[in-house]
Amino acid sequence: MRRRVVVTGRGVVTAAGLEPEAFWRSLMAGTCLLRPLRGFALAGMEEFLVGSEVSLPPQDDPSTGSGQALPADIHSDPHRARCVQLALAAGRRAVRDAELPADPAFRRRTATVLGSTMAEERQISDLTDRLVARDPAAVDGTLLARADNHRLAALVARQHDLGGPTLVSTTACSSGNAALAMAYDLVADGAADAAVAGGADTFTRAVYTGFLRLNALSKSVCRPFDRRRDGITFGEGAGALVLEELEGARARGATILAEVAGYGVSNDAYHITAPEPSGDGFARAMRQALSTTGTGPEQVDYVSAHGTGTPYNDLCETRAMKMVFGAAAAAIPISSIKSMLGHTNGAASAIEAVACVQALLRQEVPPTANLTEPDPECDLDYVPGTGRPRRVGVCLNLSAGFGGFNVCLVLRRAP
Amino acid sequence: MSAAIPAAAVTGVGVISPLGDRPGAVAEALWAGRTAFAPLPDAPGAAAAIPDFDATRYATIRGLRLYSRPTRMAISAVQLALTDAGLTGGAVPGEGLGTVTACTLGHIETLLEYDRSVATQGPMRGNPALMPLSLPSSPGAAVALSFGAKAFSMALAGATAGLDALGLGARMLAAGRARVCVVVGSFGLSPELALAASRAGWLAPAGDPRPFDRRRDGTALGEGAVAFVLERPADARARGAGLRAAMAGQASAFAPDAPATAAALERACAAALGEAGAPELGLVSAGASGSVEGDRAEAAALRAALGRSAGDVPVTAPRSCLGDSFDAGGLFQCLVALDAIRSARIPPIRGLEQPEPEGLRLVREPLEVRVAHALVTTTAPDGCCSAAVLSRIDEG
Description:
The complex is a heterodimer. By secondary structure, chain A is α/β, with parallel strands linked by helices. Chain A has helices spanning 20-28, 72-76, 82-97, 104-108, 121-132, 143-147, 151-159, 175-189, 205-213, 246-251, 280-292, 311-325, 338-341, 348-362, and strands spanning 5-13, 35-36, 50-52, 110-115, 166-169, 194-201, 234-235, 237-245, 258-267, 302-304, 334-335, 364-365, 388-389, 394-401, 405-413. In chain A, a hairpin with a 3-residue loop joins strand 14 and strand 15. In chain A, helix 8 packs across helix 14 (348-362) and helix 11 packs across helix 12 (311-325). The radius of gyration of chain A is 20 Å and the shape is globular. By secondary structure, chain B is of the alpha/beta class. Chain B is 32% helix and 20% strand. Chain B has an 11-stranded mixed beta sheet with strand order 5-4-6-8-1-9-16-15-10-11-13, sandwiched between helices. Mean pLDDT of chain B is 95; it is low at 1-5. The chains are: A alpha/beta, B alpha/beta. Chains A and B meet through helix 5, helix 6, helix 7, strand 5 and helix 8 of A and helix 3, helix 4, strand 5, helix 5 and helix 6 of B. Strand 5 (166-169) of chain A pairs antiparallel with strand 5 (152-157) of chain B.
């Protein structure tokens, strides 16, 4: 018998806010946060460096946190360890929001599962620069520890003395959702009683230059489902949820914010970057999400889209919605908050999961910003402009990653 | 779950290693205590590389030559495992095939090459063919794409990710999310990674890792990939496949600080053994690699986890011959466990002359003994601990 899994904590670290309510108000108002970047530079590419930047307050300096000592490079070089800092900031907020018991026995049974597309890629670009400059000390003894993306989860676990399974998902831009899915299984199966799970990512040279060369970077701004959409705009950030087994959460008097009912997964096995054009991969993940959680298609009240703003993704996703829901697809709100935050890569689906929790709590759905000229081929209800009230009982959180990694998480109202 | 009704059976094995590309060849080398370590060219320490590794000998895959060395090794091991399981040529439809890939550092060489093109030629001149292969997700994406795995493709990072991947694959299979799941762990050498390991002080300066020996002073590196095909036993039997062993239990735990490592590994062992139905162990295939602290913590964890039988259960440490191969390491240890279950032969710990841990039966000479259940353990420097239990499946 599988155990029921609920959400008891939210951590959100975005340009829209560092607390769930402020984040939600910003999203609901349709505030687009995509601006020229100040904290990330790439000579010769200035015109393309648009995105949403997080400003971390001083209390998110890891050196002031509780828990065990963290590696020196996190203190001494905040720029290079930016992704870890974002993850730590989200983890700390989620743990605090959940009022996670300090009891060591509880913390030993708490898992940490994070995902990231690039993690600390800045460490590698830094190494490249030193190799190119023929610096004999370019390769130092900390490289292996820094290049191992597992440290993203290990450092969050260390900061909160968490002793459960500690995993890192690397399924590109669905990594956050994959982490939440794995954490759901660990708690549902009894391998852990609680989990801190989500994702984090920041701006990297490889992603900006690479997406430009793949013609996937917007030359204006992210406009999901709009006729003029021309690609991705990036953002940085992190999102995390605390998941707990239902009975244990009730017994300790935790505030139960939502339930994670389960998930669906699929893989396109189509192309190293492009999604399968028919939408079949998205559709299979959604169908599995519905069937394995006993959710009828008519019960779905909101879909948080992957909605990157590339011509092919948004069309694929629209097709998949029609494959799964048929004519009823037009009546289900589906929006992309990437229109406001940009694509935060491995953090995106974790931040979107926090948005789904807010939608369930507030009985509202967030909008798609920058959508003003509808695409005749994208003809669903994308909630253009600003958010709106809506009875929300079940949300699907849909995500995909380069290489065809599709994950669809099912969240529903707190039991 | 008990070994009588295991959730996942191993039906195919593939290996790419400096000691051979057949499980039997690797077992023979370990039995004889052979290694392939060679000194690093420019730093203290040693590594075992696969000379003239050529993935096209194993797999005919579009775009293969663009993939990084560890990715090509992973694809080769998966091809060998599917062939071993009799599942090539469309025997399993894509919708029924899932993959779990553990190849943490598999993107680094491509990322460095891509990034060098940007650093030297300008941000608008990056090589677009290399960029998607520069992502940490690329080994997993390439594995799934190469074999048309459409059920799912999961990917994990971390030095214990190989064993974690095995557990994840078994759980995804048990949940009915695929009919066949291939799990692969891979690590490929590069000059930068070898130099970094040496400069971190991880490597034994003389190139001789001595797991559990008093004189141990570090490990050596060893590249390679190991893949396992997992199926539900009923499905495997229905198609007449051979069942090599059951993947009977797996669990992970984390040590927030170094002194907590032994306790964390003990918890992982207890949980994995509990899942497997508390079987009577015939072998521990340990992750000990010559690390001063890591081996000590593992020995303490094993004493605690084995309890009264600690002095009786043979403990071997394949990294004495294979070196540390990161994500592939735990799966190499599983390979040793599978061979012991099949052939009743346990390879010795090479170089072990002055055993440090007390209360453990460390295998110093080749040992012939029947093994029904084996425990496999790994720890990582960052605190991650993982354990798995493999069990004999008695036919009939």
